Amino acid sequence: MENKVAYITGGTKGIGFGVAEVLLRNGVKVAFSGRNKEDAEKAAKLLSNDDSQVLGISSDVRNFEDEKNAVSQIVQKFGRLDYVVANAGVGIFKPVDELTMEDWNSMIETNLSGLFHTMKAAVDELKKSEGYFISISSLAGTNFFEKGSGYNASKFGAVGFSQAAMLDLRKYGIKVSTIMPGSVSSHFNDHEPTESDSWKIQPEDIGELIVDIIKMNPRSLPSKIEVRPAKPQPNKF
Fold first, then answer.
1. Active-site residue among 151, 175, 200, 224?
2. CA angle 24, 29, 32 (to 5 degrees)
3. Domains, the chain, ranges and CATH?
4. Which residue positions does the secretion signal occupy (predicted)?
5. Percentage above 90 pLDDT, the chain
6. Residues 72-83 pLDDT 10s
């Protein structure tokens, strides 16, 4: 993995930031995006003082042109792209009769269309490197629950999209894996992690999982992975 290049969407905090930390420790050069330029630049400085190893980018995955520009910046700086971790996501949890059009569009455009935009923007570079595309979905992509209609729809779609894309792209040497975490200690849905979240999956755990699957023998492809807390709280995934 030394000197390979990764792009992580939604990388300024939470899972994305944890994945970036682990990849950097494994010698990977890391680019990541967030909607806010200042947040991206701040996170880059927190990750490393060496700007030859990290790149913070302002990009909204809902906008395909943003993602094309992000990939262009990465290739211009690092010369290649080997790994993409499509992590950007939002969740709004309401009964379906209370879910607004804005709520629905926000989740579908970010969690599903954003995933397509990221893959579409990166696929030509991944063909060159025979790289790896990893989508961060959720156990909500296979387990429906009350107040989850919009989120479930976006994540069921994200799993279906990623698995079909895996079949399309493996003939080019590109691997596609879908990781489906349960409860993660992150800033998702405006949550602020505390000590009470210690039972949850930690962001760096997802990073270590990604390193493990990248390092697998190239003849094998773990196409869909569910990961849960080992000791969950009652009524939690």
1. 151
2. 90
3. 5-227 (3.40.50.720)
4. none
5. 87
6. 999 999 999 999
Please identify which of the residues 13, 155, 200, 224 carries the catalytic annotation. 155
164: which 2 tokens? Answer: 């079909």
120: annotated active-site residue: no
151 is an active site residue: yes
φ/ψ of 200, rounded to 5, equals -80, 165
Q: pLDDT tens digits, residue range 178-227? A: 999 998 887 665 667 777 888 899 999 999 999 999 999 999 999 999 99
Percent of the chain with pLDDT over 70: 96
For 109, the token pair is 């455009």
